[in-house]
Amino acid sequence: MTTATNFLAFLGLVTTLLIVWRQSWPGRRRLFVAQSLLLAALAAVIAIYARRPGLFLVAAAVVLLKALVIPRALDRMAAGAPIRPVTPGRSAGMALLVAGAMIVVAYAIMLPVNAVTTLPTEGGIPLAFAMALIGLFVTVTGRDALGHVLGFLMLENGIFALALLATYGLPGLVEAGVFLDVLVIVLLMEGVVLQIRREHDSIAVDQLRELRE
Amino acid sequence: MSLLVLVLAPMAGAALLALTRAARIPILHGAVTLVTLASAASVVMDVAGAGSVTVLAGHLRADGLSAWMIGLVALVTGLAGVEAPRQVPAAEARRFYPLFHLFVATMLLALGTDDVGLMWVAVEGTTLASVFLVNLERTRASVEAAYKYLLICSVGVAIAFVGTVLVYFADAQQFGHEAHALRWTTLVRLAPGLPAPVMELAFVFLVVGYGTKAGLAPMHTWLPDAHSEAPAPVSALMSGVLLSVGVYAILRFKTVVDLASGPRFTGRLLIVLGLASMAVAAAFLWAPASYKRMLAYSSIEHIGVVSLGLGFGGAWGVAGAMLHVANHALAKSVLFLLSGRIRAAFGSADVSAVRGLLSAMPSTGRGFLFAMLALMGLPPFGLFLSEVLIFGAGLQSGHGIVVGTCLVLLVIAFAGLLRTAHTMLYGTAPAVADRPGWLRSLPIGFALLLLAITGVAWPPGLAAALHHIARLLGP
């Protein structure tokens, strides 16, 4: 089980880094779907080894929500936006460097957690937290609304992986609430972003300057 | 039982309001508001009698702290609910009222559940229910405010989820997967055996996450936009009580973490964030362009004061903070509701557009004046007393330098507020359409009276209630 969960967490982190590296929207979207499918596999693996049949439901919900419904909402938001929001010629090197540093930071922050556990899944915990941190980084540095939403979803995926690895999933009621919240956030975001595009004819963030001191 | 009604009634009311015919909306809105108020009063009475109430096999639970906050939410809901029909255009009623009550329901669920996981879901729900309320006017500015609000608060609350996961993890590592491991009552029972480093790490995530909802600097950047763009009754709820729901969530976890690692760690963190919030607010209160933004920055200041009270700790610090939450809820919701009337009359939220408020709109102007005086922390209003309690707790716990810094920041904020209030209240008034009436002034007058009561003559039971809450939360 340790090998399987470590490997899946590692692959999850690799998809996160690839999203940071790729600049084109269709590529990033495919990677996000791949990452979500990896998380579903992670949930299924833990469901088998830890004998938690409830996690199969969670895995199914991840596939439905994060591999099907949410990517479609993202497509509706992206319609008409330029494929490469970043200026051509600007490389992703700096961003990748920061992301790499964040993996080290994630290990440092999760030291007290790894110190108190002997879970077979503990090796993946810092990797999952690094996914969340890099998602936060993508959100904060996002240059358009798509970047923000994608970053938020990466953050959410990282936290989901962290919860799976550290606790084998939260109680069902909470888990259901989390899925509902993520879905509603993305749908609300879609509504707001579509209105911003009608008003400004763009979803780039530097267009938002009504509210400044 | 009344606790169940309290959470379900506004939810069911929201669904009915979304489905019913337009002509019935105002009366149904009144009915739902009344049921919410009545069941909140009943919960508060039950808790006052029995100490705590639980329903649904312990999923819902209210103790002294919940009851205090539920009472405040109900009070501000009442004030905002009465004012809403006068300020929300009939064309928007279909969008406004269902979300208004859903918003109230999510806050009440966050306060009325024992399960910190469910509390997380409910706190996220408060953001989701209020995003479209912030964007009710659908202007460029309001959609931008809604976007920032949704994004920053969602990210913040996601970070709080990391903290919740870590608490659950610590719990499960130490005691196995105990039933109801995420219940606050369970956590408090097991807390002394939980690993301190993990709990402290969790608390950092929880403070950053729920602190974003509470409007603590430097996570406050969404707040002035959202609070100033929302329609006045929603601003009143957001500033008056929603921020305090964020503080409430932090406070629940602070109790648990303090039991695991001692109060020094959480106290220091809250003092630093409280000072940062007061400093940011003081800087922006000096010359605000819009009076709604002024009120929003003042909320950051007062949440900072509350955070300091909790950081100083001890019975006086906690009691002062709770009293301050209540006083601020009353003063700020009155001011936001009146700012809605002022904006409707003068046609702008700019400070420069409003002159001679006292002569142009006498009853609104007087209410604004008194509430501003209360907000500045002048006696005889309650905020003076709660600030004295909090700073007393600071001196008692040996934080003299922090208290001194706060007093300087308070004076700066005071001067800024006074200057703006003076500009608005006096001068030659343009001709504006005021719609006076004693009935309109009644709820506002009632809230101001309560503010004076908490400052001058405590009703029987108030001291005991504050004492009870302080005992509940601290050693």
Folded structure, characterized:
- Chain A is globular and about 55 Å long.
- The mean pLDDT of chain A is 89.
- In chain A, 45% of the residues are buried.
- Chain A is built from 8 helices and no strands.
- The termini of chain A are far apart.
- Chain A is mainly α and 213 residues long.
- In chain A, helix 2 runs parallel beside helix 7, helix 3 packs parallel to helix 8 (172-200) and helix 6 runs antiparallel to helix 7.
- Chain B is mainly alpha-helical.
- Helices cover 79% and strands 1% of the residues of chain B.
- Chain B contains 19 helices and 2 strands.
- Chain B has a two-stranded antiparallel ribbon with strand order 1-2.
- In chain B, a hairpin with a 4-residue loop joins strand 1 and strand 2.
- In chain B, helix 9 packs antiparallel against helix 10, helix 12 packs antiparallel against helix 13 (314-346) and helix 12 (291-312) runs parallel beside helix 16.
- The model of chain B has no long low-confidence stretch (mean pLDDT 93).
- Classes of the chains: A mainly alpha (213), B mainly alpha (475).
- At the A-B interface, helix 5, helix 6, helix 7 and helix 8 of A face helix 5, helix 6, helix 8 and helix 9 of B.
